[in-house]
């Protein structure tokens, strides 16, 4: 059986990322991009999905996992009376040839230890058979048009489609395994004897430099920095887009059918992430996304409409399909790729879009003229359509309804567009926009907050909607929604109840996994459910940022 969702850490290179379990097994990796087909997916099917196993043979070993401080270099330790072993996992950043490489280095810390390695990729979501052969002292895996090379510092055998190795290390000795594209041959930089050590240092230094750019000096800095590092890992360095989560097909309920693919860029989630980056002083990431967003605006439909999600390179075709040959996480089927919600009407995205553009214009790069032309087309369309029923933020599949959140975010869209036009003296039909915008009422909001507390809060955890309401058109249920919990905490703090907000926030932090990661949802026993890790770490950052200011008397309250 695959490791539980929460028993994983993540490593990545801003193109793709991998999940590595407490047992040292790499259980999930799409290659070469986040939204490419998987090559390892044993988290979804430990027999057919493919995995990269690396483990010491130690009876009764205790497993520990942690990050090298302020980095995305993952250390997995095995501790027993017979010896201590450690695996260092990372994906390289900054290689001179701009290659994508996964590096796994194992070390005997204490005692003489026997190790086993098994690398068995399963190409194209485990739908393609592959060839395997030796080439110049390395192992080549070939599946369809994709080829991978495994370079090892110890002898490797080939058997039944897998690369296998068994070896012994004395205390202080290490062995390494490098997975890269097969096009890199004998002249690959990874073939250099000192490559692993140099790449380890370069990658560690990159992440530490990035963390040092943060301007956040408040409370809960360690978990805030870790959340920022997660968000950075979900960012495409090539395009500037930000995916919602690393994985596809992980269930919101064990045995349930809510098993979606979140490896794409939702305008909503990415806009919230821009807010989080800006709060921490990571302006470069916010600017990169807004440039990507500007491209989407400049190429929006003639009527100004946008898709609610895109592939990382900005394409809008996300045909949903099922993978019946995969059992699913703990038997939760179907496993889905693509996402049919892409065709839905979700009016709130225009509010998040405009909020991100407004904030970026204020703190980062100014909105370009071409982007503004796209914005005016979108606002014109929204002015005639904001009253329509839609599928809403939760992407219900039970038919369109009139959602309060969609109305609220349409208000935000016009408010930010008006502010931006006035601030930059940009041409806009301000009279029409001002007539469309309505005023909020504080008392109604406070009563709404109370209703949320009465109906949706379970101890410190928050459901996104009542499961018995049948609102989403799907059978079965789901767990509490982590982003809703952090949002609720921030709302309490903004409403003046900072003491209660802090209490619930601290409790919620206790549900993070061993390395500070959160999935989409939490189950009844606190188990992680849904895709992992989620960009919902953005809501943790936002809540921590506001509460820290409130506790320090910097929120404008007396």
How does this structure look, described?
The protein has 558 residues and is of the alpha+beta class. The protein has a domain at 5-210: Distorted Sandwich (Beta-galactosidase, Chain A, domain 5), CATH 2.70.98.50. The chain is 32% helix and 21% strand. The chain has an eight-stranded antiparallel sheet with strand order 6-7-8-9-16-13-12-11, covered by helices on one side. It has a four-stranded antiparallel sheet with strand order 1-2-3-4. The radius of gyration is 24 Å and the shape is globular. The relative contact order is 0.11.
Short characterization:
The chain has 558 residues and is of the alpha+beta class.
What is this structure's SSE topology?
Blueprint: E1 8-12, E2 17-21, E3 26-30, E4 38-40, E5 51-56, E6 62-67, E7 74-80, E8 83-91, E9 101-110, E10 113-120, H1 123-126, E11 131-135, E12 138-143, E13 146-152, E14 157-159, E15 162-169, E16 174-181, H2 195-212, H3 221-233, E17 265-266, H4 267-279, H5 283-298, E18 309-310, E19 321-322, E20 336-337, H6 349-363, H7 369-383, H8 404-424, H9 430-436, H10 442-455, E21 457-458, E22 461-462, E23 480-481, H11 482-494, H12 498-509, E24 521-522, E25 528-529, H13 537-551
Antiparallel strand pairs: 1-2, 2-3, 3-4, 5-10, 6-7, 7-8, 8-9, 9-16, 10-15, 11-12, 12-13, 13-16, 14-15, 17-18, 19-20, 21-22, 23-24, 24-25
Q: CATH superfamily of the domain at 5-210, called what?
A: putative glycoside hydrolase family protein from bacillus halodurans
Query: What is the CA-based Rg, rounded?
Result: 24 Å
Q: Which of globular, elongated, flat, extended, rod-shaped describes the shape?
A: globular
> If you average the pLDDT, what whole number results?
92
Helices and strands: which structural class?
Answer: alpha+beta
């Amino acid at each position: 059986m695959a490791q539980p969702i929460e028993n994983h850490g993540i490593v990545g290179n801003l193109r793709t990322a991998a999940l590595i379990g407490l047992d040292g097994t790499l259980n999930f990796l799409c290659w070469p991009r986040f939204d490419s087909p998987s090559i390892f997916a044993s988290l979804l099917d430990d027999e057919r999905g493919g995995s990269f196993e690396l483990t010491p043979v130690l009876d009764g070993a205790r497993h520990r996992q942690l990050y090298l401080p302020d980095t995305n270099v993952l250390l997995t330790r095995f501790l027993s009376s017979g010896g201590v072993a450690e695996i260092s996992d990372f994906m390289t950043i900054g290689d001179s040839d701009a290659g994508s490489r996964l590096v796994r280095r194992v070390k005997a810390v204490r005692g003489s230890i026997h190790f086993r390695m098994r690398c068995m990729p399963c190409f194209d979501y485990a739908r393609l058979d592959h060839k395997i052969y030796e080439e110049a002292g390395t192992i080549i895996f070939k599946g369809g048009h994709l080829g991978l090379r495994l370079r090892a510092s110890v002898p490797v055998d080939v058997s039944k489609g897998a690369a296998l190795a068994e070896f012994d290390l004395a205390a202080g000795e290490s062995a390494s395994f490098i997975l890269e594209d097969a096009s890199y041959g004998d002249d690959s930089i990874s073939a250099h004897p000192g490559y692993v050590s140099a790449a380890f240092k370069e990658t560690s230094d990159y992440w530490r430099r990035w963390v040092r750019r943060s301007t956040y000096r408040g409370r809960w800095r360690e978990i805030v920095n870790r959340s920022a590092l997660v968000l950075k890992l979900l960012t495409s360095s090539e395009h500037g887009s930000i995916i919602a989560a690393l994985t596809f097909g992980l269930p919101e309920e064990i045995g349930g059918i809510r098993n979606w693919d979140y490896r794409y860029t939702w305008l909503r989630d990415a806009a919230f992430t821009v807010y989080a980056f800006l709060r921490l002083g990571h302006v470069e990431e916010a600017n990169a996304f807004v440039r990507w967003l500007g491209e989407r605006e400049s190429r929006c439909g003639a009527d100004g409409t946008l898709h609610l999600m895109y592939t990382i390179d900005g394409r809008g075709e996300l045909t949903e399909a099922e993978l019946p040959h995969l059992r699913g996480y703990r038997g939760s089927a179907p496993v889905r790729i693509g996402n049919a919600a892409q065709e839905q009407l979700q009016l709130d995205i225009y509010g998040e879009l405009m909020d991100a553009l407004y904030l970026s214009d204020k703190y980062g790069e100014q909105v370009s003229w071409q982007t503004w032309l796209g914005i005016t087309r979108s606002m014109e369309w929204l002015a005639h359509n904001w009253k329509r029923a839609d599928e809403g933020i939760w992407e219900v599949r039970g038919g369109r309804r009139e959602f309060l959140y969609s109305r609220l975010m349409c208000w935000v869209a016009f408010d930010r567009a008006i502010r931006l036009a006035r601030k930059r003296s940009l041409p806009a039909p301000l009279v029409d926009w001002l007539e469309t915008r309505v005023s909020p009422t504080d008392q109604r909001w406070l009563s709404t907050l109370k209703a949320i507390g009465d109906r949706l809060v379970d101890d410190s955890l928050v459901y996104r909607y009542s499961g018995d309401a049948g609102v989403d058109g799907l059978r079965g249920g789901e767990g509490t929604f982590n982003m809703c919990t952090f949002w609720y905490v921030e709302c309490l703090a903004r409403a003046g109840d900072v003491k209660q907000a802090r209490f619930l926030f601290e409790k919620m932090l206790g549900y993070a996994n061993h390395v500070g990661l959160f999935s989409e949802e939490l189950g009844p026993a606190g188990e992680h459910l849904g895709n992992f890790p989620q960009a919902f770490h953005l809501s943790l950052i936002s809540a921590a940022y506001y509460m820290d200011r409130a506790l320090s008397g910097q929120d404008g309250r007396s």
